[in-house]
Amino acid sequence: MIELKEVINYKNLSLHKKKRNVCAYARVSTSSDVQLLSFDTQVSTYAKQIMSNPDWNFVGVYADEGKSGTNITKRTQFNLMIEAARNGLIDLIITKSISRFSRNTLDSVKLIQELKNKNVEVFFEKENISTFDPKIELIMSVLSGMAEEESRSISENVKWGNTKRFEKGEFHVVTKGMLGYDHDEFGNLVINEQEASTVRKIYELFLEGFGATPIIRYLEDHNIPTTYGNKHWSKTAIYGILKNEKYTGNALLQKTYRPSFKSKHTVNNKGELPQFYVVDSHPAIISLAMFNKVQEIRKQKSIKYQKSHIKNMEETFGNKKSPYTGLIRCAHCGKHFNMKVNKNSNAFANRFLQCLSNSSKKSCKADTLSCDVIDQEILNQINLIINNKNEFLNTLSKALNSDERLVIAKQELKATQEKLSAIEAKLGKMTSETDGFHKAVMDQLNKNIYELKIHSAELQNKIIVDLNVDNFLVSIKSMLKNYNGLITSIDEFPYKQFFSKIVVLERNKITFVIGKRDDYENINLLKELYLPGTIQYRIRKTDYDAEHGIIFF
Predict the structure, then answer these.
(1) Are 389 and 531 in contact (CB under 8 A)?
(2) Residue pair 513/530 in contact by the 8 Å Cβ criterion
(3) How many distinct structural domains can be found in the chain?
């Protein structure tokens, strides 16, 4: 008779146990000196804690300063960490408390469930809770809900306090963003006569029939700076001055509000909250009669140009900020291109891109670009990458790993670790010595070892978190893996996440930038392009060739 023996999976034996990739997340709520000290302490403490555990691989300390816990969209390092976890580069995340992770119950529970499905654990030190605990969802809902209620309570108290101040006619104006006023030593609004003359001139020109563009031309031709000292004005700045009732010496309070304590953006108050009008609250720059006349003219112009039966740009093309915002950069002035529309009153509307330096008048030599041409170039470049996927990924990996910053950091890390090993070996030879001299030397060696370990952790953290090549490569591979055939529309591909920037050198010459750096002013746009391509297009019976290619940066 054959005796059955228990079968043991060798992978579960401690001998073959794989070390876990462990990181930490630290966050402070404010930018005060005390909190920043706490922030630095958290980073160094977590680095030491993880590196001292022989069963853990240190994969970085991700840390955000002065970011709110109620919303994850602005927490850059947090989002980077979650992306790395999704890509399989992290097994365990350690964080101080649930409130450090998120005060938004929905965000917390959703993220924890997603990470659990990917076998990624989160451990909250203060609550001594692991997300692998079967009761975690109930516990998280209760504790995270309490943290969220704390944020709600603080927000409501602040809102209540603001309303009470407004009822008393108390308010504060940040004069840095408001032309014409300063604060005196008592905090009162006082007129800045030099700036006030600019405000009066803007009102006078508008009443004389000048629109925003001619007013901008007048101000720039006369070298009159904006409230921030810039040479170039915008229509938004002009209209902001023309509709600001504070220039009459009166103040309308609570014109905007935040719809919820989780929201970071204000909306116009259309009766949802009470408004307060404070008369003669500060010195006037223009008369109330002049202000009212300007508002009447603005209203008449609005009615004259309003055509309710015509679709606006958003209805015609979708959200105007979505296709190119923050993506297309001018090689000449460094500003971005903004999408505009002409002839949007009919079916033959034309979308075009214009350098922001040329929004009011031509001050940059960059030409306008057709959005249709840019779309063709994006489509062609993506298809070139898909057709050469394996070669592209290998070339990208070599380019990223040869980044000067990464090479220097790795060299410094290697030198630090070699120095650390040498000192540890020297210390090991002295353990049997007990006299005072050797004890003093050993104390100094231990101190040096501690400092080198901290420096080593900082360098590793820089390589893993800041330079972040491995996670970036995994993300790029993930975006490409489902594309085995050519695409027919740019909407089929996440090009805004794929390309770091699109740099415009000339109307018919653009460069696609892919990489981890953001100091685009240092990019060498004259270097040979990778996977170059050309598209043909026609304007008014004339054929043109547009060249494009890739630079890794």
Answers:
(1) no
(2) no
(3) 3
